[in-house]
Amino acid sequence: MSPHHISRGTYFYAIGLSYKKADAEIRGHFSLDDASKTALLEQAKTADIESLVVTSTCNRTEIYGFAQHPFQLIQLLCDNTQGTVEEFQKVAYVFKGRDAISHIFRVGSGLDSQILGDFEIISQLKVSAKASRKHNLLNPFIERLINAVIQASKRIKTETNISSGATSVSFASVQYIMKQVENISEKNILLFGTGKIGRNTCENLVKHTKNEHITLVNRTKDKAEKIAGKFNLLVKDYANLQEEINTSDVLIVATGAQNPTIDKHLIQSDKELLILDLSIPKNVNENVSELENVTLIHLDHLSQITDETLEKRKEHIPLAETIIEEVKTEFNAWMETRKFAPTIKALKNKLQDFKNAELNTQRKKQKDFNEEQAELISNNIIQKITNHFAHHLKDDTISTDESLELIKKVFQLEETATDV
Length: 420
Hints:
53% helix; elongated; alpha/beta; Rossmann fold; Beta Polymerase, domain 2; 6-stranded parallel β-sheet; 16 helices
């Protein structure tokens, strides 16, 4: 049995799309909100999918899971988003087995992020695994794999400087605003929405610009007030959005809406306005660019801004890759152990049968048969024999599959099913 192969006929796959080939519009078609994720997990259960984890961020949407064919996972994604199979095939990637394992390690370790060293995805993976567990869709393989990825990302964070300085798109946003807008500490900044990147951008703006004119508008005011309290922002009603936009110098849009919420008709002022759209799908209509006083920047543009910090981070890639290999080797060793665990268990059961038969014979023959002693000695011998076989099977220089076949043949074993 292949180590990444679980039930008969199923393999471990990673399917998805990311910023590398799919622009913001296409990623928007495939983005999953919480309700769609839940619907996808429910559908997976009815489709007899044994285990899968689904993540959707502004940079990527991915499914990691076991299927007979990757199309089953692609179908799940397309059924629960606005995306089509044809569109998916143009920009997608499909990895199988060890390649899928390597992919999730690179993603979780910030090496595949739009901005190198951005570890936002790790918290996403944790949340996704929790949701799969809740739906009984997290088998020991994927659970162990995600834990290994989390371990690798922690080590990379602490043992390398790949995320030195502020990370992620919010870092690039703040850099961009500070470079483009003079006297930023005196300007009016408006944050519309409470998306994570927007919140991080705001926090960094407060820190770096000492600006005391940052206002937050959100559809649900209580959520806005919670965040505003944390970052020392002003909160205005959603009904005042247009008025607030017209007094702003910088507008940061970070809503989770599925359709644009800002368009040119909301902008009635002639003053210079920089709009940063940090939402996927896009939340600012392109038509705002028709206004001469407006500059529109989307997070895909921001991620292309490289600076010395990001260049320096690249020097840490080899060390990060070494750490990934170490953790992956441990994971592969665990997989190999899982692979022969049923045979070792079956062997132990067979030896127990030999023991019981022999003890029964001796019990009848000997008057003063010492039950306790016989039990102890025979169990110790069984343990030594099974340890020897397990040690042999862990040896990298031998063919595990051939050895397993031989052990099964010699001892006439019928092993019990297991999930690798």
